[in-house]
Amino acid sequence: MRHIRIPTLGLALAACLGAAPAATATATPAGTSAASKSGAGLDRYYDQRLGWGDCAKGPDDAMGRDLDKAGVQCADVTVPLDYAKPQGRTITVAVSRLKATDTRHRIGSMLLNNGGPGNGAVQSPPEFHAWMKKTGPRYDIVGFDPRFVGRSTPLDCGWNVGTNLFSAGLSRASFERQVALHKDLAAKCRAGNADVLPHVSTRNTARDMDVIRGALGERKISYFGYSYGTYLGTVYTQMFPGRTDRMVLDGAIDPRKFGPRLLKEAVGENERALADWATWAAARDNTYGLGRTRAQVLATIDGVIKKSSRAPLTVGTAPDAFRLDDTQVPFVLLAGLDSDTDASRASLGEQVSVLAKAAAGQAPTKLSPQFAGLLRLATTGDQSNMGSSQTAVICGDVAAPRDPEVYWRDIQRSRAAYPRFGAVNNNIGPCAFWDRPREKPTQVKHDAKALIVSATGDPRTPHKGAVALHDQLPSSKLITVKGANRHAVYGLYENACVDKKVNRYLATGKLPTGDQSCAK
Question: Are 385 and 188 in contact (CB under 8 A)?
Fold first, then answer.
């Protein structure tokens, strides 16, 4: 669910059982027109003319100004809130486009999704253009903020946190506080957004994608999705078979596993990534002071969590001062393990060092901007919109167990093998208190050509999920980055092997003859 600009800090929340079906508009096979209509009453959406213009919304809109400077144009796509009632209420989905400059060799439009769910991609066309090198000018590169995300029609439940990825803590009492927190988060969402929540789902986002394709005048569309975006892309291929051209799925998810308890699948990868980081930190004890061996560093971490369970740790200085208990400290660890680059590891080293000094009773010091931003996400409502939309999608896709004892039993069973993350990855979340989804989860029944990218030690969406998706899409090919604890590879990890293979596919449309591997 990439660091904090990430595809997935929020890939998991509560639990999955099943979902009740509902009457909604269904997709028909691709037609012969450019728009390829998708059902009665939707023509006005597919045929709309987009009002492309400047991206900056005002003098304080730095992102918009940067996009304007890069030659990107922005527009709003109108879509129905409820696809079963296309004449009813409408919402807007924000899109951006960096047009192809090599028009003689133009391939088509490529749609981007940065995962989350809850992450927008309106800002992303310029960086993708750069990563794609000589192939970039051959595409119209299109970013979009999914429904209720970013610049699209917003959803904000008014939470006092921007994420719900917390630990159950070390005691039954801390778990009960988590139950109360997540019940309250769900209630706040329902109180102000009851008319909208039933329509926040991956399937409806996929329908929006097809409207975007139609409004762009494309028979088929290429797609690049990170993390949750790999699930969204897979769902799109199942709902609208035959409408994709080139598709890259990076940090892939087994669609059968997607749901509120997805992060449960990665608990082992999280513990191993932390152990690998501890080895790295031990070799730099003079810098971080956490211990000279892996075991000592892990013992320091365990001590910090234990200390925070007795009384919250105070870190930082005003105005960025925070109090963290044993439900919040593991979130810092989880957030810092999405990459094994030296820069990412150093950032986590600095953060754990701050926590260790707080646990030892030392006076708080000024936090780095990155650490302060992370703690604001976890402890304030600054990013309530992101947490709200992310949660609404996951809870709107797959139902979760409603009995808190289900979670408590899993937490207790996992503590011995996974002492730092068992209580995080198995924790209860708002989906336990959410209304049941309107549609059944999407099942993979259609093959699709796709290039899947995955690292063997991915701590967010485990490599086994990519292998499973590859098996479900027989025409796909898999690029495996061996020995890397990394989530989201292309462009971000600066792995020349991966970038070259992906760019070759985007340029030629030809998948490799067999599965590929790249060294870390």
Answer: no
Q: Helix, strand, or coil here: 409?
A: helix
CATH class of the region 42-154+199-256+443-519: alpha beta
- How many Cβ atoms are within 10 Å of 80's Cβ, its own excluded? 23
pLDDT score at 14? 27
Model pLDDT, residue 39: 61
Coil, helix or strand for 284? coil
The sign of the dihedral angle between the CA atoms of 448, 390, 175, 401 is negative
Residue 12 has pLDDT above 60, yes or no: no
What is the spatial distance between Cα 151 and Cα 418, in angstroms, rounded to a whole number?
A: 39
CATH 3.40.50.1820 residue ranges of the chain are 42-154+199-256+443-519
CA distance 120 to 14: 23
Q: State the alpha helices, DSSP H only, in 37-195.
A: 43-46, 62-69, 125-131, 172-193
Q: Which residue has the tokens 């119209």?
A: 140
Q: How many CB atoms lie within 10 A of CB 310?
A: 11
Predicted TM-score (pTM) of this structure: 0.93
Strands 313-315 and 322-324: antiparallel
3-class secondary-structure state, position 520: coil
* pLDDT (tens digit per residue) in 30-41: 333 344 455 669
Kindly report, residue by residue over 358-393, the tens digit of the pLDDT.
Answer: 999 999 999 999 999 999 999 999 999 999 999 999
**Where do the DSSP E strands lie in 106-243?**
108-113, 139-145, 221-226
Q: What's the confidence (pLDDT) of residue 121?
A: 98
Listed residue (263, 255, 154, 280) closest to 473, CA to CA: 255
Q: pLDDT category, 87, cuts 50, 70, 90?
A: very high
Per the CB < 8 A criterion, the answer to whether 359 and 303 are in contact is: yes
Residue 119: φ, ψ to 5°: -100, 135
Q: How many CA atoms lie within 13 A of 285 on its CB side?
A: 13
53 DSSP 8-state letter? B
